[in-house]
Amino acid sequence: MVKLTKSTRKPLFGKTKTTKTLPLTAIKPAKKSFDAKAFADSFKSLDQNNYGSWPTPVKATVLAFIVGLVAFLTWFLPITSKREEIASAEAEQQTLLDQYREKESKARHLKEYEDQVAKMQGDFRELLNQLPKETRISDLVDGINMAGMNSNIRFQDIKVEPEVSQELFIEQPIRIAAVGNYHEFGHFLSGLAKLPRIITLHDFEVTNPQPSLDHLPELNLVLNTKTYRSKEISEDTTAGKDAKQEASDAK
């Protein structure tokens, strides 16, 4: 800014004339706008053998690019591999946590589980003790006949089939063929359930050879039942010896 001083002149004819000066503001040159084309052209005229002669904007751009590239390579590549390792470790951690929870739950309920197993084994031994030591088929057949007579059914056949040896007991299948109506068969099955021997009912077949609407039809019943007896001590001992012999032969 330029200032002009105040000056006083004395005129030739009597009056003094004062002249005031006003400040003048210096005119600033207009800012030069960024020319993208000129900036791009400056890269074409670079002297690769003389980096110092490059324009300052070009130097700054190249430096920023190099710094960014180095930062990207030093950060992204190691971080990517670490992320994969972290993801794998997290998956393994989740698997281990699930296994821990499962084992911890089993350990927490172990005493209860052992008590249940002991109770089941006791109940099973009690049931085995209730099984007769001998089959006594004649007594059982007499009981089946008595249940049939009380139910008014007519037997066609009562067949005692060969025994089937299981691990802890022996099954005795009995096949029953009889004739009667629905109600009589119901009473007969109820009578079987009241026998002192354990009898289980399995496959059965009911046929109606002469359908009739005037009265209750007579049906043919074929019923497969099983009764049980416990193994003798001698049989258990023999079985144990056989098992030991098989184990020694396998070795």
From TrEMBL:
InterPro entries: PilO (IPR007445), Transl_elong_EF1B/ribsomal_bS6 (IPR014717)
Lineage top rank: taxon: Bacteria
Keyword Membrane: yes
Keywords associated with the record: Coiled coil, Membrane, Transmembrane, Transmembrane helix
Gene Ontology biological process terms, A to Z: type IV pilus assembly; type IV pilus-dependent motility
Positions in coiled-coil regions: 79-130
Membrane-spanning segments: 60-79
Residues covered by region (Disordered): 232-251
Signal peptide: none
Pfam families: PilO
Full protein name: Pilus assembly protein, PilO
Organism listed in the record: Faucicola atlantae
